[in-house]
Amino acid sequence: MKVKKVLLIGDSITEAFSINENLNDFNIINKGIYGDNTQGVLSRLQKDVINEYPDYVFLLIGTNDLALERSDEQILETVHNIIDTLTSSLVLAEIYLTSILPTKDIEDRPNDRINSINKNFQKMVNNFGVHYFDLAAFFKDEKGELKSELTEDGLHLSAKGYQLWAEVLKNKLSIKPTLC
Questions:
Q1: What domains does the chain contain, in order, with CATH numbers?
Q2: pTM of the predicted protein model
Q3: pLDDT per residue over 28-50, tens digit each?
Q4: Would you tell me which of 81, 98, 120, 136 could form a disulfide with 60, CB atoms 3.0–4.6 Å apart?
Q5: CA-CA distance, 90 to 45, in Å (whole number)?
Q6: H/E element holding 42?
Q7: Do 33 and 174 touch, CB atoms closer than 8 A?
């Protein structure tokens, strides 16, 4: 049985995800780049995603756009263009738009904006027939912030945070009969 190729694309949160430690049972390619934003992902789709011919794509991007003072509309428009490009080019791949993770005490990445964008992501996936991967729900505390034990600095994940992401992703991938 062929092992399916899973591609993760995003910023430093994705880049720091040690797939060899956490997900060595799966054929996963990590295309996270420190400091990347939605425009950066859009510009590198052909090289980093489409040319890899993945069976599954998990996109986690947008937090750096907030710090760059891009409007919600600009973020949503760029993510729309990313999803449009992916669905047009990878017609057999399953595309997952991952929710932006919450933050803890990060002024230029407020959780109310993150929640609003994530709600719009949920609506967007219906227009494209792609999937919404609500990873953020697993990372929120009772105040809706990133749980303290899951972060190093209020934005980036701790080892425990990556272990949680790996568990959630394994569960998601394990329901697919041809992934492992």
A1: 5-174 (3.40.50.1110)
A2: 0.94
A3: 999 999 999 999 999 999 999 99
A4: 98
A5: 11
A6: helix 38-43
A7: no
